[in-house]
Amino acid sequence: MIDPIFTIVSLVLIIPIALFLGVIYQYFFRKLSARFQWRVGPMLRMYGDLKPLLGTTRLLQPLYDILKLFGKKTVVPEVSRKKLFVSSPYLSLLFAILAVLFIPFPGMPLLSEAPYSLIIASYLLIASILFTILGPVASGSPWAAIGARREVELFLVSELGFVLSVFSVAIARQTLVIWEISKGEQTLYLALLSVTAGALMLAAMMGKLHIKPFDMPEAEAEIVAGPYTEYSGKLLGTYYLTKVFMLYALVGLFISVFLPPLASSILWLPLYIVAALLILFLLTAVQVLNPRYRIKNAINWYLKVLAILAVVNFVIAVYIWLVL
Amino acid sequence: MKFSADPNIVDFVKKEIYADGLEYTPLRENRVAIKVKPEELDKLAELFMKKFEARLIHATAVDLEVQGFEVLNIYDFSKVKERLVVILKAKVDKDNPSFPSVAKVTWQATWAEREIKELLGLNPVGIPDPRHQFLPHEWPNAVESGLTGGQYKFESGSQTKEMYLPLKMPIEESYQSLIPIGPYHPGVIEGQIVYVKVEGEQVVAADIKTGFHHRGIMKLIERRGYNKGVFVAERVCGICSAAHGLTYVTCAENLYDAEVPDRAMYIRTLLVELNRMHSHLLWVGVVADVIGWKTGFMLTWGLRERVMDIIEAITGNRVNYGIWRMGGVSRDVSQELAAKARRTVDALKEECGKLLTLVAEHPVVKSRLIGVGPLTKAQAFDGGAVGPVARASNWKIDVRADNPPHAMYDPKVISWEVITDDNCDTYGRTLVRVKELLVSCGIVSQCLDYLAKTTGEVRIKPKTVPAGAEAVGLNEAPRGELAYYMRASEKDSNLPHAIRIRTPSYRNNAIIPLMLVGSNLADVPVVMGSTDQCLACTDRVEIIDEKTGSRKSLTWDMLVNLSRRLSKQ
Fold first, then answer.
1. What percent of chain A has pLDDT above 90?
2. Quick one: which of A105, A124, B73, B360 has the most CB atoms within 10 Å?
3. Contact state of A222 with B289 under an 8 Å Cβ cutoff
4. Which long-range contacts (CB under 8 A, 24 or more apart) does B132-138 make?
5. Residue A220, Cβ neighbours under 10 Å: how many?
6. Please, are residues A250 and A210 in contact by the beta-carbon 8 Å criterion?
7. Do B293 and A290 lie within an 8 Å CB cutoff?
8. CA pseudo-torsion sign B353, B359, B362, B368
9. What pLDDT, on the 0 to 100 scale, is given for residue A277?
């Protein structure tokens, strides 16, 4: 059994760790896509003559961009429903942080040992996304309304993929506790399941993280800033912070569910980071290679991919459960 | 090279096209001005468009001070006879400045006649859409005086409140389903409003309002004279500045008996085609950005920089080249520079070919472009589409082939082709532009080959412009046919009496609402982008209130109050 004091300490520690790693992931994402696009991107080592002005590295550039927003004026539109409009970003952030607590980090099981932690984590992630929809709807802007509508449609199909992929693993391993999944042994069939379910999960992540071609809720050329059109200052910063935690949580969940035992012991930490960066590399490649779909095409694409992958997934999962 | 005209052109026009004109004047390069009675304008429009499939280039009017107004309809007859352009001129009295609208015969004249109405206060009788074109719809006066020496007596009295509500929707309804794309919107860089009425994400009606960029370019040229005017003309547009420069000099050279050295003609072609290359690369980038493909945007604009470098090496400037002169160009391209540029262009052509096929074959790009913004050939003809938009609707018009400007496009010397496509949608427009870019690469290489091998003078001094001369200059700008009309002053041999500019975006923007209806909201910026609109070109006039002289000014607080009061209603 794990020491309760260690659990409490790790619960406090994981929040800055998640924030830092989320920012590093975003940095990697931005730098990589910049290099794909003949741009420089945020500097890892600043030019010598700019060092006194800008510091030696801009590794934390995504964080600076968020912090800047906290120093700006926050405007709340008069036509909005103010309570919901103002509280949604904070609730969204809260649920994202709570979800982080249920996802194991190498050497820290956190709350993922709790019974049904897989279901709880999934629900917390859903709740976080739900509040990125509710706030904009309350803002009274037509752009936000269209963006939120697209977000709902996208969320419904991508959520389906998410649930199907995560729970096929849960069926195969006969447990709903993330910690048990993440330290479970690997067999050939389970590895095969990880590939198909992992592919499904990547597709779902694209929708949740608005990776192109699925960034239509925020399509700037079409609907300005989509859901975030009326948000500014602290509230917008809070939403961006939510995205950082969300990125960390989804990558962490991916590794702990599909790539056991990388999230089980502190010794695996270097490989954990490598795996995370590989996932981000895949997402970046998809992002830079694709324009944006229309929402209709996106849903069609999802249904097609889900239909094929989910069937294969379940056949493998049930085979492992019943035969092996 | 001297520019010849058929000596019997007037006889040809009388025999083949129209015999009952009041007066026939042959102009340079097979252009004929015919004086007609104003009542005949609409009948003639019908005759020309139906029987000869002539294309209306522009409808405009000139103020003749005490003598009245002259309404001009310029038609392109190049499919009937080589380089034939017919200008119909009808004198209109100042006391009763009315003439029959051509727009009721062919829809494409609507914008032009709305502009005439605003600019000079003439009344096109029977115009289907009588609202303001460049002024705000709710502007109280029918006319904002641009008169050079008269007074206006025309009062329309028809500006009702319903007319300027966008799409005639009641205000309460518009809050729910009216989406304004503009005046400043991330999908379209320049200022204009496209009102879009949506049901869900489906567009059911659309309207367009221009007038956010008025600068008074035409008036500026009229006050500066021929030699300085070319620099102003270049500044109509930052992207197709070469096209404007070339059209200006073509038009001005048609005013007098001009001669241009061959080498200058090649340099002109070289610059215009380089200009077209960077404009098309820019367009591909913009469309990639609009459909959310930042990588495509960055890569095409990266290639565009290299075209800009070649232009900079040749002219010394990146945007406004300042090289155009009446009778030639101001700077020679040395043989070494031409050879060096040739090597760069070859490498560029290869890379462009690869990248652009990649863009055109990308499955997601295709899914975003195929079937979006459909425009049939008949619609393109009636709407007056020009350039790549018309060619993508399988209508083979290209001024470079039909009615070339004063640059080297002779098929005997330079091999090139007019690209058309039968997709009739945004994907077709993409393919046309991508292929045209490669054709332009070929033309540039041939010009550079010529320049690397030969030497010669690049400018012949212009002669005096005769009083009262008229000319039309045409050129294929990257966005389509660009037309200049000039009339020399009777009193001053340095100043033009009138200059009229008809830019390609002026035509293509007008048909945007037509292409929008029925599309998805996600496709609206793509359709708007597909015409490669250049709003700086569209809104080139400014009308200043000379008559009342009173200008009501609003303080910041008053404006804020006004906007709040309106938004609460």
1. 24
2. B73
3. no
4. B132/B164, B132/B211, B133/B210, B133/B211, B134/B210, B134/B211, B134/B214, B134/B539, B134/B541, B134/B543, B135/B211, B135/B543, B136/B164, B136/B211, B137/B163, B137/B164, B137/B209, B138/B164
5. 18
6. no
7. yes
8. negative
9. 92
Q: What value does the mean pLDDT take over residues B142-154? A: 48
Nearest CA in chain A to B186: A221
Instruction: Please report residues of B whose CB lies closer than 8 A to that of A213.
Output: 292, 364
CB B111 within 8 A of CB B540: no
Cα B377 to Cα B79, B481, B550, distances in angstroms: 17, 17, 48
pLDDT at B553: 46
Smallest CA-to-CA distance from B291 within A221, A198, A1, A184 is with: A221
**Distance between CA A75 and CA B113 in Å, rounded?**
45
Highest average pLDDT, of A180-184, A212-216, A285-289, B520-524, comes from A285-289
Question: Residues A80-137: pLDDT tens digits?
Answer: 888 888 999 999 999 999 999 998 888 788 887 888 888 899 899 999 988 988 888 8
CA-CA distance, A144 to A218, in Å (whole number)? 9
Which of B291, B299, B372, B567 has the highest number of chain A CBs within 10 A, making it the mutation to test binding with A?
Answer: B291
Instruction: Give mean pLDDT, residues B78-98.
Output: 86
Q: Are strands B324-325 and B202-209 parallel, antiparallel or unpaired?
A: unpaired
Q: Any idea which of A180-189, A254-263, B541-550 has the lowest mean pLDDT?
A: B541-550
Q: What is the pLDDT of residue A96?
A: 93
The alpha carbon of residue B237 is apart from the nearest alpha carbon of chain A, in Å, by 23
pLDDT for B554 equals: 46
* Test mutation, A39, A152, A223, A300, chain B, max B CBs within 10 A: A223
List of domains in chain B: 9-163 (3.30.460.80), 218-510 (1.10.645.10)
Summarised one tens digit per residue, pLDDT across range B4-43 is 778 888 888 888 888 888 888 888 888 889 999 988 888 8
Q: How many angstroms separate the CA atoms of A139 and B525, rounded?
A: 24
**Whether B185 and A288 lie within 8 Å, measured CB to CB:** no
Separation CA A313–CA B503 (nearest Å):
59
Q: What is the pTM of this model?
A: 0.84
pLDDT of residue B557: 56
Contact of A216 with chain B, judged by CB distance below 8 Å, is answered with yes
Mutate to test the interface with A, among B365, B367, B526 (most CBs of A within 10 A): B367
**B520 closest CB neighbour out of A223, A224, A294:** A294
Distance from CA of A36 to the nearest CA of B (A): 7
Looking at residue B378, its pLDDT comes to 85
> Nearest CA to CA, how far is A275 from chain B (Å)?
25
Residues in A closer than 8 angstroms to B368, CB to CB, are 291-294
- How do residues A21-74 score in pLDDT, each as one tens digit? 999 999 999 999 999 888 888 988 888 888 888 888 888 999 999 999 999 988
Q: What is the distance in angstroms between the Cα of B356 and the nearest Cα belonging to chain A? A: 14
Which residues of chain A are within 8 Å of residue B287 when distances are taken between CB atoms?
none
- Tell me if B365 and A291 make a contact (CB, 8 A cut-off): yes
- Count of other CB atoms within 10 angstroms of residue A126: 16
> CA B7, CA B26: separation in Å to the nearest integer?
9
**SS3 label, residue B519:** coil
- Cross-chain residue pair B525–A224, CB shorter than 8 Å: no
In whole angstroms, give the CA distance from residue B479 to residue B504: 6
Query: How large is the ipTM?
Result: 0.81
CB contact (8 A) between residue A37 and residue B362: no
Shortest distance, CA B367 to any CA of chain A (angstroms): 8
Q: Is the pLDDT of residue B145 over 70?
A: no
Query: In chain A, positions 140-169, which contact chain B (CB-CB < 8 Å)?
Result: 142, 146
- Contacts A215 to B, Cβ<8 Å: 292
Q: Residue B148: what pLDDT?
A: 42
